[in-house]
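Table S4 entry, DDE Tnp4 domain-containing protein.
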Amino acid sequence: MQSLDDAEFMFRFRLSKPAFNSLLIKLMPFIRVTSTRNNGVSPLHQLLLTLRFYALGTMLISVADFVGVSISTAGRIVRDISSAIANLYDEYVVIHQQSAEKFYHIAGFPRVLAAIDCTHIRIQSPCHVIGEEFRNRKGYFSLNVQAICDADLKFMNVIARWPGSTHDATIFNNSILRAQCDAGLFGNRWMLGDSAYPNRPYLLTPLINPVTEAEQRYNEAHIKTRNIIERTFGVWKRRFPVVALTLRLSLPKVQAIIIATAVLHNICRNHNLEEVPSEVELPIVEINEDMYFSEVQDVSERAALVNNFFR
């Protein structure tokens, strides 16, 4: 905190010093020093160690050496701090209806609540009994994480508990978000999803075979507007490489890290922090091209929009 200037600090820990200090204050009630011997690791150092782990995405031994603790202590710290940050989810990850105008300015698509999609977070096989449930269509083990975002690249909802083999539509159909939409909680707003999702009155998907000019304009506006969720995933994974690389931790720790980094991503957006380059080489962010949703769908809302607005 004292020896590094703001740019160097943000490069190493992905947060600015003011953002770090405000986060530390919020976490203080949840952070405990478990040992009185040899001066237990202070909350300041616990948070620095965890942020360094998120920034590097490497083995725990790297960040353990950084603070001067054992690997087991580093693992416990990452677990505790990740859970503490994840507890701030309801404060920082909130569904709101204030982005419709910003979404409209992207490509002229009206009444948009959010863009929705899934992304795969690589993990090691949990165990030989259920491991194959986590192998996705591309052959590696993962969690299939669903998220929605606003026009400012902020997460508004994140679900991080489904195995990599799960279809995107299954995650949505079994979510609280779907129940909220069915109950009409968001009024006449729409979410935009790709063809892996079912077309619903509140969830619009692209037309598979557009024919008329109105249908082509609809698809073009839909694709440009929905691309915001792909950008959000990219910014998130570049800022916190731990979710772009393979997480070699237990499932509860992995889920806590995913939610914690999503909260930190929104904190960074709230503080208008610029993107910082990664210290490690990252794989290309994959677009989650799941299979088309093939069941009977409600297309009346989409047809009305195409015919009455995009015509």
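The two ends are 57 Å apart (CA to CA).
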